[in-house]
Amino acid sequence: MKNGSTTRRTLRISALAGLAVLLAGFAVPERLVVPVAGANGTDWNHGTFWYAPWGRSGVHKGIDIFADAGTPAVAASSGVVVFQGTLGRGGTVVVVLGPKWRFHYYAHMERSDVRLGQWLSPGEALGAVGTTGNAAGKPPHLHYSIFTAIPYPWQARSGTQGWLRVFFLNPHEKLLDG
């Protein structure tokens, strides 16, 4: 019986610790900067988030920030690099886990200058704007998306992939708030 009691106590402590970590992720303030050096709201189309139809992906789950190839791409938020590499349509990609359990996805980069596990501050170098992945042959840009590990059910919509909106935030709106 003593073993069962110890196991239950350990499970309760683990659950409380997990809840504390989850809540701590929401407590960290989020400060966003435009993730392309020198760019501002005139460098992307404000209406392209969740625009459909959008090629093979169906809808555009972010914004494309246009700049010359090689322009520095920077972290929009503080966080830790959880992916750095190549993904088919995204080309050279970096994913950063930031405050509020939000993932910041940067794609089509010419190059990545970060490493897995690296901590970044807003405005810190990620790499450079490019035309990799399905952006080949298109004007250089950085595709920027924000998706959340904690779904926001009130974001659901009807229409193309509308149920997926529970996991995505409009970067345009978030950058304007910052």
In short:
The chain is of the alpha+beta class and 178 residues long.
Characterise the protein shown here.
The protein has 178 residues and is an alpha+beta fold. The protein has two domains: 1-27; 31-177, Glucose Permease (Domain IIA) (Distorted Sandwich). The protein has helices at 2-27, 171-177, and strands at 63-66, 72-74, 79-87, 91-98, 102-112, 119-120, 125-129, 141-148, 168-169. Strands 1, 2, 3, 4, 5, 6, 7, 8 and 9 form a nine-stranded antiparallel sheet that branches. Strand 3 (79-87) and strand 4 form a beta hairpin. The longest helix has 26 residues, at 2-27.
List keywords for this structure.
single chain; 178 residues; alpha+beta; Glucose Permease (Domain IIA); 2 domains; nine-stranded antiparallel beta sheet; 2 helices
